[in-house]
């Protein structure tokens, strides 16, 4: 393949020749930087939208040299031959990414730029944090850009609508673009604010659950997860398992949040009360279910399931109540109708049905 011809002076041609010679090293370095960032983010539990890397193409480098080649004494002065971009979901994660980059690589602070400090009205899409970095074993510097998803999307959209097109954008369009940029910047801030508020809420909930103030904790998926971490059904399941000296097989009980909502529980305190008031009845039901079998493994869902069944039976909701409960637990099925009728018939003479324990 013929070597492309460019209108470059001898100095710029030398820089381009060096680029060609070391291109495999640039490509390897880009992969290494990407892999290192991915690994450190995983270790830190930091979830980002994407990590992108590229090596500047010969065409792009030539265009840069044609415009301002005299600015560069050597290829080492061009710091974006290798470029990596980390895109985060939240604006405050940009600083976490930056901290990770600082730990992994040597940052050239003099040439790094925090464009987030810009205050121009049209600066939103360009509010990236740009670090110029170096690493052992690679003689050239490279650039890492860090920005949010919304900043990245805006930069791309703004580019497509006229930036660098060579055509001046009319003022009315610029005004609308800048208004939109302001809305996106506000959205970026609000996403981070909401996440922080939710994190604080979860911490408060965990504290209330740990201290036993369950009546103050509204029932939702997050709070129920915290409640399950206390093992509220463990004692009942162990008591049931002892009937057959059975092993307890743990299963995910998170879907029971909807079951307890069906039973009109509004707080974790409501669930705890329901559990305490119906544990003995649930044990009686379980003994009947497994007492005459050789079952040696039971599911950890047996306890909460029988607590709910006991509550429905004791409340007098009858076959219809049982059918609706079983549909909620197991999914709608005709077999639930038969099971409801069976449970109602077989438990009618149980001790808990004849006293208001």
What does this entry show, briefly?
With 357 residues, this protein is α/β, with parallel strands linked by helices.
Give your account of this protein's structure.
The chain has helices at residues 10-44, 58-68, 93-104, 149-160, 171-211, 221-228, 234-241, 256-262, 268-290, 302-315, 318-330, 334-346, and strands spanning 50-55, 82-88, 106-107, 113-114, 129-135, 138-148, 247-249, 297-299. By secondary structure, the protein is α/β, with parallel strands linked by helices. It folds into 2 domains: 10-190, Beta Polymerase, domain 2; 221-353, no CATH class. Strands 1, 2, 3, 4, 5 and 6 form a 6-stranded mixed β-sheet that branches. Strand 5 (129-135) and strand 6 (138-148) form a beta hairpin. Helix 1 packs across helix 2 (58-68), helix 4 (149-160) runs antiparallel to helix 5 (171-211) and helix 10 (302-315) runs antiparallel to helix 11 (318-330). The radius of gyration is 32 Å and the shape is elongated. The N and C termini lie far apart (91 Å).
Give the key terms:
two-stranded parallel sheet, Beta Polymerase, domain 2, 8 strands, 2 domains, 357 residues, alpha/beta, six-stranded mixed β-sheet
């Amino acid at each position: 393949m013929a070597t492309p011809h460019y209108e470059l002076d001898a100095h710029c041609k030398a820089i381009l020749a060096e680029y060609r010679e070391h291109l495999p090293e640039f490509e390897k370095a880009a992969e290494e930087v990407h892999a290192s960032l991915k690994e450190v983010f995983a270790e830190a539990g930091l979830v980002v939208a994407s990590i992108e890397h590229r090596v500047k193409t010969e065409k792009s480098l030539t265009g840069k040299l044609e415009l301002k080649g005299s600015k560069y004494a050597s290829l080492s002065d061009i710091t974006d031959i290798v470029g990596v971009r980390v895109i985060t979901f939240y604006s405050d994660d940009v600083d976490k990414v930056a901290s990770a980059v600082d730990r992994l690589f040597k940052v050239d602070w003099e040439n790094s730029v925090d464009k987030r400090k810009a205050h121009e009205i049209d600066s939103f899409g360009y509010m990236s944090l740009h670090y110029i970095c170096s690493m052992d074993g690679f003689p050239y510097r490279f650039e890492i850009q860090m920005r949010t998803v919304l900043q990245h999307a805006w930069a791309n959209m703004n580019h497509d609508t006229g930036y660098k097109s060579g055509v001046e954008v009319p003022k009315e369009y610029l005004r609308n673009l800048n208004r939109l940029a302001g809305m996106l910047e506000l959205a970026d801030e609000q996403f981070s604010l909401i996440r922080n508020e939710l994190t604080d809420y979860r911490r408060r909930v965990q504290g209330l659950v740990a201290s036993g103030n369950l009546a103050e904790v509204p029932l939702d998926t997050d709070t129920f997860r915290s409640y399950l971490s206390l093992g509220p059904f463990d004692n009942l399941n162990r008591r049931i398992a002892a009937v057959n000296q059975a092993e307890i097989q743990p299963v995910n009980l998170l879907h029971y949040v909807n079951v307890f909502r069906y039973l009109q529980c509004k707080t974790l305190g409501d669930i705890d009360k329901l559990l305490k008031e119906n544990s003995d009845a649930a044990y009686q039901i379980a003994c009947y279910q497994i007492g005459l079998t050789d079952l040696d493994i039971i599911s950890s869902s047996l306890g909460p399931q029988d607590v709910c069944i006991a509550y429905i039976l004791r409340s007098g909701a009858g076959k219809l109540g049982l059918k609706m409960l079983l549909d909620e637990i197991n999914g709608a099925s005709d077999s639930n109708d038969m099971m409801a009728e069976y449970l109602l018939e077989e438990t009618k003479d149980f001790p808990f049905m004849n006293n208001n324990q």
